[in-house]
Amino acid sequence: MTAPVVVFAVGNPSRGDDAIGPVICGRLAKWLANEGLADRVELIEDFQLNIEHALDLQDRELALFIDAGENTPAPFIFAQIYPSTATSHTTHALPPEAVLEVYRQMEGKDPPPSFVLCVHGEKFGLGEPLTTAAENDAEAAFELLMGLCRQPILAKWESAVTSIG
Hints:
Elements: E1 5-10, H1 20-35, E2 41-46, E3 62-69, E4 76-81, H2 96-107, E5 114-120, H3 132-150, H4 154-160
Parallel strand pairs: 1-2, 1-3, 3-5
Antiparallel strand pairs: 4-5
Helix pairs in contact: 1-3
């Protein structure tokens, strides 16, 4: 059985604040198990999004993409996103909107309602640790994330949309 919600956590744990996605993903996995919600949410962690991730959107009710953003206002942005043809496609990495567009082209229908949780990051250098600011911003984002997972309902997620966390 396919979980109704899929969460993509994107980032490189070896690049400072780019580790925000994987850090949140690990914490979310433990929290979902403790809350008895692990069967309702599938977690997918990767360094970057690729065309193949469109397959992970099949049979979902909601999708969430978590990533760090260098120019994101602190602590985070939570926004609904839509397929976009304006995004350039490469064989290496795609923004979430392009993954949604690949799904639409592949399936011939709109993807599930999708959102992005972009957490403020400051330092992304190779070998750098997660900054204290990023840890604090990830904590604020995790508070929102727990509420979203407790109520995986489109109207609830739409009401949580904000441009500044």
